[in-house]
């Protein structure tokens, strides 16, 4: 049994086709078939059911692939560990960042990171929290930046980076536009534009409002894009919630639309997350340090702030 055979088997379990596996891994289809067959012969069990249009793992195959994934992930960690024995901050790293944060955070720190650590080759992928946690476990991500706290059953390490305040973004046509500060109790929830359900930011907004907000009427817009909701407010009217970093990129002539929420300061905690066994922690720590240097200073402390829960529970 070889690691390459395990990689073929994992790819086949995911893609369900010898042809797709061959294309994704740059080999011939017969080569994939021969390696899978050799693996099954050596193990003495049938890993895949080939009777349907799509190749599916058998029950034993599913159990085998789960162990195989752990072995392949650990082998990659071992390779990474050898690289990290060097004192120099260098190497490839893949970071998942939630969509409500990535467009506003990445431009703040990327140039500074490139200047300080030119030998870090960083890949950033937008993904929701559930996808990031899954990617940490299967090796697609080395780290993630998500909203916390979350209920997790995995062996994860969380490092808070900053605390992002919630603001209201109010249309110039709205009755509350001339107010500098607005209480949650004053909002008519029919006026509020929200992100799609299942998004941690929406869950936090729902927790702030202490109610389940349901948009009604002739026009319902579902999005995971905060800038899209801003545009809806600007052109159609109403109100939406914004995280603090997104307000830094709003043009000066629209800054009057940004309103404080009265009462205690409500924030979302933003954290770096990784497996405790992740060998590239030095790279993640370097990235986290640069992010903190580039974030507005008032966002670095959670003291005297109300951290809004996310409702997220790892499945």
From TrEMBL:
Keyword list, A-Z: Activator, DNA-binding, Transcription, Transcription regulation
CDD domains: PBP2_OxyR
Limits of the HTH lysR-type domain: 1-58
Gene3D superfamilies: Periplasmic binding protein-like II (3.40.190.10), Winged helix-like DNA-binding domain superfamily/Winged helix DNA-binding domain (1.10.10.10)
Residue runs in coiled coils: none
Protein name: Hydrogen peroxide-inducible genes activator
Source organism of the structure: Ancylomarina longa
UniProt KW DNA damage keyword: no
Top-rank lineage group of the source organism: Bacteria
Classification via PANTHER family: HYDROGEN PEROXIDE-INDUCIBLE GENES ACTIVATOR, TRANSCRIPTIONAL DUAL REGULATOR HCAR-RELATED
Gene Ontology MF terms: DNA binding; DNA-binding transcription factor activity
One Gene Ontology CC term in the entry: protein-DNA complex
Record-stated family: Belongs to the LysR transcriptional regulatory family.
Matching InterPro entries: LysR_HTH_N (IPR000847), LysR_subst-bd (IPR005119), WH-like_DNA-bd_sf (IPR036388), WH_DNA-bd_sf (IPR036390)
A Pfam family matched in the record: HTH_1
